[in-house]
From TrEMBL:
InterPro entries for this protein: MPAB/Lcp_cat_dom (IPR018713)
ER-bound oxygenase mpaB/mpaB'/Rubber oxygenase catalytic domain span: 30-263
One GO molecular-function entry: oxidoreductase activity
Organism: Pilimelia terevasa
Organismal lineage: Bacteria, Bacillati, Actinomycetota, Actinomycetes, Micromonosporales
Protein name per its UniProtKB record: ER-bound oxygenase mpaB/mpaB'/Rubber oxygenase catalytic domain-containing protein
Amino acid sequence: MPAAAAGHESGMTTAQPADAGLFGPGSVTWRVHDEPVLLLGGLRSLFLQALHPRAIAAVAQNSRYREDPWGRLQRTSTYLVTAIYGTSAEAAAAGARIRRLHARMSATDPRTGERFAVDDPHLLRWVHVAEVESFLTTARRAGLRLTDAEADRYYDEQRRGAALVGLDPATVPGSAAQVRDYYRAMRPELALTRDAAEALCYLFAPPMPWWLTLSPARPAYAGVAAAAFASMPGWARRRYGALGLPVADAAATATAQALRTLLRTLPRRWWESPVHRAARERLATPA
């Protein structure tokens, strides 16, 4: 008699394995996103995403990021951490909410006047690639040791996240080489529009409560934003009118490494999200 049947007949229940979600503790994704320094990567991805005229137009015309920047940041962070550390059902529900939200949105191309859908796969792919490439690049720049094979695995794993927002995983770059080719193909579409310039200024100096404005938080944030900007590829910095000099790369690396060291000294409860903590407890994974 099979063990499961024997257990059933004897009144015993067979324990079900805990739901690891889309990735799980053995994934490169969990290693990368266990880095609090990814806040730097998040900023970098926003600078990069804003260079696509339609992508930033969609944000400018459908988002209240100027009125509620921290609320928007919180909602985006909650979605990302749920997709990475939530159960399969939680990740699927978060993806469904995003797809429903995007399906109701459209925007006008500032150059042609053409109306376009926000859930255009071409735009979703750009946002996805800029985001995951920024996270991976920032983690490695800050000192997380990953082999090139592990980096490729991260990109391949992140195709599961791309599927959540409605992309066909087969159309999403799944290796570092494919990401390089993708960026090369996309560069002719990128430009510094008025929306991008406004986003750049806003990201460098977002509104803060008065008591933070008068504290060291304002210059500290400005330093982080400058490092995020400098860590972009030279071609992206030049699109903004800045110099793409190697010295900027060196400064961004030094800042990323110092920030990682600093954040790692803080208690884990200060930067680990409740969803992340619940995943570790659910899967009995040590901190």
